């Protein structure tokens, strides 16, 4: 399963279970929030590791850029669109 699909499932799980949602949000308070988040994901059954999460967003963004405007470098980058981690938390926080 791809990182995006796993994050979608986690988001859905967190929207139905406030305890899980809070545990995921609490990982942001850790000294190493990305590592804590990935550890919590694995605890919940989703094999997500730090580098996989980082590169998934970058690969998704690169694919999107290649598919628009002929793949030229003049495509504008939207703030944060390549950061699955931040987008995940933005959606969790929006639900509160």
Structural summary, described in words:
This protein is mainly α. It has one domain. Helix content is 66%, strand content 0%. It contains five helices and no strands. Helix 1 packs parallel to helix 5. The mean pLDDT is 82.
List the helices and strands and how they pair.
Blueprint: H1 3-16, H2 18-26, H3 33-43, H4 50-67, H5 84-94
Helix pairs in contact: 1-2, 1-5
Protein name: Nif11 domain-containing protein
In short:
The chain is mostly helical.
| Helix coverage percent | 55-70%
Overall number of domains: 1
Helix count, DSSP H or I runs of 4 or more residues: 5
Shape: globular
SSE topology string:
HHHHH
Organism: Blautia wexlerae
Protein name: Nif11 domain-containing protein
List its salient traits.
Nif11 domain-containing protein; 0% strand; globular; mainly alpha; 66% helix
